[in-house]
Amino acid sequence: MSKPIVLHIDHVSKTFGGLDALSNVHLDIREGETHAIIGPNGAGKSTLLNVCVGGLEPTKGKVLLAGTELTGRRPFEINQLGVARVFQTPEIFADLTVVENVMMAMLSHRDGAFRLRLLSRFGDRSETGLRATKALTDLGLGGHLNHLAGALSRGDKRRLELVMSVVQQPKLLLLDEPTAGMARADTNATIDILRKFKESGMTIVIIEHDMHVVFSLADRITVLAGGRVIAQGLPDEIKGNPKVVEAYLGEEQV
């Protein structure tokens, strides 16, 4: 029996001033799946993610999370429904420690000022602090607990943001170029973390240009070009698809 659909993208189109950034994109992501969305620059990948998280409203179509419509909701509402997104540039609290960053994420349903008051009141020995410490230790950041987040390397900032996302226990994790600008060692370390998420049964959608990352993680792949889906299938099917190779000429070779 097929696993339930977590994310349903229902014939979504998005037009900007007469330009079709997305055209009739239809896609289902099932529970526990790691699904990669690839394509050349300008294919509509980030636009699609922005539609899913409420940053943009589609011109046509709709997006549903486990049967609940997301279209028309604000980003914080979509986050509270169980969608976590990791952006191309890590979004962390640079002036807080690493463990405080994760505690803030765990208290994400609170407003920012109230979260800060909770941090100052309970500190990192609270139940929240202990859970944050364990999450960081499990994912290789245990040695940085009390370091300021802003002082971390780019790779460690990305890993911190990933921990901040996963401790929210999302129904769906959306990753927008999670290894952009990383050296190969940092990329491989990030792949290792994402494999742990995958093994835990988390549902993941990843936009990525690095085909090493894509083929290391993806169960299925959707290829966009010119705002349209040109191919969809298993990794081996995508590798041999002539439409995909043609779409990547001058960009990435799959």
From TrEMBL:
Gene3D superfamilies: P-loop containing nucleotide triphosphate hydrolases. It holds the Pfam family BCA_ABC_TP_C. Residues 7-251 form the ABC transporter domain. PROSITE patterns: ABC_TRANSPORTER_2. GO terms for molecular function: ATP binding; ATP hydrolysis activity. It comes from the Bacteria. Keywords: ATP-binding, Nucleotide-binding, Transport. GO terms for cellular component: plasma membrane. PANTHER family: CONSERVED COMPONENT OF ABC TRANSPORTER FOR NATURAL AMINO ACIDS-RELATED. This is ABC transporter ATP-binding protein.
